[in-house]
């Protein structure tokens, strides 16, 4: 489903796409689409708990740690897999990974923040006449992602701040 909407949101020079020309309505459509995709993912998890529980034996331990004392409540509990981005297990895994890096390499030397500028030339160049960056958040995100990839290349491959032993980042 996600791939379908990525295809729908892409600009094509020879095909008029009314979705991309609706300003705030486009933004609402993007939010609704995101909710639809997340709901689909959650629905899959909800209806496939037996498969997930077979793989995630940790569920019983989680129930005990959460203070569940009733055996029926443990059985009825729903588990979000760590593969569900943004879920509690995902966040815990990412935190533990970051703490493992700190344990092995010590405290971080650099804390770097990168922000997006809607007036970047790459964004304004791609906008149609009369459109603002707020009308096309997809372009802003694509440009930000490209600049982030370039910054990572500068930091990790070209080592502009010195050799990097380990890193973690959040967008």
TrEMBL record:
Q: Which domain of life is it from?
A: Eukaryota
Record-linked InterPro entries: Helitron_helicase-like (IPR025476)
Where in the numbering of this chain does the Helitron helicase-like domain appear? 4-171
Cite the Pfam families for this sequence. Answer: Helitron_like_N
PANTHER family in the record, alphabetically?
DNA BINDING PROTEIN-LIKE, OS02G0701800 PROTEIN
Q: What is this protein called?
A: Helitron helicase-like domain-containing protein
Q: Which organism is it from?
A: Aegilops tauschii subsp. strangulata (Goatgrass)
């Amino acid at each position: 489903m996600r791939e379908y909407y990525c295809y729908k949101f892409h600009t094509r020079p020879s095909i008029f796409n009314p979705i991309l020309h609706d300003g705030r309505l486009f933004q609402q459509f993007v939010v609704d689409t995101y909710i639809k995709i997340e709901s689909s993912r959650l629905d899959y998890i909800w209806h496939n708990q037996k498969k997930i529980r077979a793989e995630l034996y940790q569920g019983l331990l989680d129930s005990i740690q959460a203070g569940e004392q009733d055996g029926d409540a443990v059985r009825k509990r729903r588990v979000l897999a760590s593969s569900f981005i943004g879920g509690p297990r995902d966040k815990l895994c990412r935190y533990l990974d970051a703490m493992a890096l700190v344990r092995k390499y010590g405290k971080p030397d650099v804390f770097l923040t990168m922000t997006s500028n809607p007036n970047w030339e790459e964004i304004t160049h791609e906008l149609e006449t009369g459109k603002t960056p707020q009308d096309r958040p997809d372009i802003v995100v694509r440009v930000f992602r490209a600049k982030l990839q370039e910054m990572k290349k500068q930091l990790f491959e070209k080592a502009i701040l010195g050799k990097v032993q380990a890193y973690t980042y959040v967008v």
